[in-house]
Structures are given as structure tokens and as C-alpha cells.
DNA sequence: AATATAAATGAATGTTCATTCACTTAACAA
DNA sequence: TTGTTAAGTGAATGAACATTCATTTATATT
């Protein structure tokens, strides 16, 4: 038995994500990817069933990495403010350290692959967050809200800020830079909205 | 001189947007599009320079429609609460009446075409919104904030809600439905965050 | 009715695409 | 050392791709 060459797998993943972010989903060709990763086209099919499977697997892998990072040092028993601050910082850090993967996940989330992507998503994160919010409500740190409304207020602004920062934006100033200070200022306002 | 057949132009636009939302940017082929729109492939090239031009033009057209809708009955002199309520309702209405175009714009915004899309965007909307916020700050209805932070809090949650509603979401309940009531409840919290 | 003009076409071009397959290579078990 | 297994390959295949072009068609003007 010959062992899989881990470097090949990593090279395929990394080059694929790069290609998609740079040239779009329609810029990802199996042959170009093989050349970029230094493997034979046929090798990719050892790791992935077909082109779509490749895309979905990559998205799941990257998204799992984001979820794990966002839960680092997190505990659902934390105070609401403390927990939110940690999650915002963790997510922002993931984006700073993995901008390409972050853009990739956002692209997939807004593509036709979204449904398959969601189906396969684990429930663990959802459960932790539900516990966190239930706890915060119990401690009168958070108003009662449908989960979707809560999520939208709690994280919608963060993702919007990240998008402003990552690509420039029709309405963003050219010189816009996402500082930790601005992020925390924004978070304080979000907390103001969500406190009883 | 033979006049352009407006129906053909509309058919191309409509089918292209449908195709992209259903099958993704990599699912849009000029020949398939021509067949779907009932025209010759060559006809498309009368209207658009090439495939990318087609995509960008479609995105600009749809985005302009969204901007116009969002400014319907809007006046930058309105009170902050009134103005925000109107914009939220206008945007939600656009989404309800044009779900495919809305998804299309969101897809382009998160794709590699984003930069070209932004470059070509008009400044009118930005100016109106700047006037609106400046006015609200003067009237002590809005705290002072960098434009990006303000925008993120003011509209980030709305777009997140729309996404929850349009596709289901990893963390959304299966039965989630975006009612006007929930939207207005969420807006009230956003306003709470942004009021001095 | 004749002319001019641009819209519209269908077939054709050369390229690139995803995927497969017969084959070779590496590593471990015997 | 030899046999077995799966990793890895390069070339090949046929389909689909974006785009072009010689030609036809419709219409507004003369």
C-alpha cells in the first residue's frame, strides 16, 4: 500500500481556493488546477468525485475552520458581552489570517452551491450558540428574539464591515481600514441594540 | 435601418439572470443562453461585447433597479426613523417582487466581478445617503460614526434577514419566514443602536 | 419601388473543458 | 525478495465552449 502524499492534497486545496477567489467559479478548470498544483488531472479525481464535489468539500473544510476559530476560548456560559466580543474578535482574526479562504466561503455562500453546503453543515455550532443565547436571556443580558433576528443583528454588521474592508465597496471610502477600535465600537452599538 | 427587437433584449437579460441564479456563473453558456432566449448566439454579441460584458451590464442594470426602488418616496430631509423604515421596506419589497434579480446581485457582489461592478456604480445614491445621515446627526437622531460602521449596522442585519429568508440558512429554522412584523421589530433594535 | 443600414442569423472555428483509462510507481506485508 | 495494493500519471476522448463571419432579413428613408 502506497500512502497518500499529503502535500499534494494541500496543494490542490490551496490552489483551488486561490483560483476560485481570483478567477471565480467559472475560472476553475480541472486541468489548470492540476497544472497549478503540480499534479496530474487524474490525481484530483482520487481525492474528489468530480468538480462539484471538489468545490463542496473545499467549502465545508474552510467553513469548519472558520467555525472552529470562532469558538476558540468560547464558552456558552460566558457573559453575553464577553462572548460576543470573543466571537467578533475570533472571526475578524480568521479573516485577517485567512483572507482568501474567507472570501471563498462568502462566494460559495452566495452561489448555487449554497444549499448543498448548508445540508452538510454540522449542528454543533448551532447548539452552542443556542445555549449561549438562552443563557444570556435568562441572565437578562439579551432580549428575547427569534434566532434569525438575533443572528442578523449580532453578526450581520460584522460581515458587512469585513466586506467593506476586504474589497472596497461602492459606498466605502477608498481609505477605509477596519481597525480593532472601529470593530469594537461597532460591537458596542450592536450590544446596545440587543440589551434589554 | 432595422430597429432592435426589444423583446429579444429583454429575453436575453431575463434568461441570463435566471440561468446564473439557478446554475451559477459557471452554468452560463452563451449558446445555452441563446437557445433559452430564442435567439442566435451571434445576436447576443450585438448587445454585449462579450460574456463578461454581459454579466457586468446585467449586474449594473439590476443594481440600479434596486437603488431606484430603495429611494422611492425617499427624501434625505426625512426624520431618521422614517427614512430608515422606508428604505428597509423598499428594499424588502424589491426582494419580494424580484427575488431572482436580488439573488443575482448578491451573487455578483460576492464574485470576482465585484470590482468592475463597483467601479461603474453611480455616486448619486451615496450622496443622497450622506446627506440623509448628516442631517440625522445634525438633528441629534443619529450618533456620529464612520460611514462604513453606520452602514454596517443600518443595513447589515436587513441583508442577513433577507438571506435567511431566501435560501434557508445553516442556522435558520426550517420554518423561518420573514414577516413585515419581524422586520420592523429588527429595525427598531437597529434604530436603538444608532440613536444618541 | 429602390436603396441603405443595421439587426439577426446559423454554421463553422479552434480552443478548452471534465473525465477516463491503461499504465507506472512507491510502499508495505509476506 | 516478491506480491499486493492503492497512489499517481500522461495522453486521449468527445462534448461544450466563446466567438466570428458570410449571409439574409426587416425597416426607415429616399
Structure commentary:
The structure is a homodimer of 196-residue chains. With 196 residues, chain A is mainly alpha-helical. Chain A folds into two domains: 1-47, Homeodomain-like (Arc Repressor Mutant, subunit A), CATH 1.10.10; 55-194, Orthogonal Bundle (Tetracycline Repressor, domain 2). The first copy, chain A, is built from ten helices and no strands. Chain A is elongated. The mean pLDDT of chain A is 94. Chains A and B meet through helix 1, helix 6, helix 7, helix 8 and helix 9 of A and helix 1, helix 6, helix 7, helix 8 and helix 9 of B. Chain A binds a DNA duplex (30 and 30 nucleotides) through helix 2 and helix 3.
Which properties best describe this structure?
homodimer; 196 residues; mainly alpha; Arc Repressor Mutant, subunit A; 2 domains; 10 helices; DNA-binding
Secondary-structure blueprint:
The structure is a homodimer of 196-residue chains.
Chain A: H1 6-23, H2 30-37, H3 41-47, H4 51-70, H5 80-97, H6 99-109, H7 114-119, H8 124-138, H9 147-167, H10 180-194
Helix pairs in contact in A: 1-2, 1-6, 2-3, 4-5, 4-6, 5-6, 5-9, 5-10, 9-10
The first copy, chain A, binds a DNA duplex (30 and 30 nucleotides) through residues 1-5, 8, 29-32, 39-43, 45-46, 50-51.
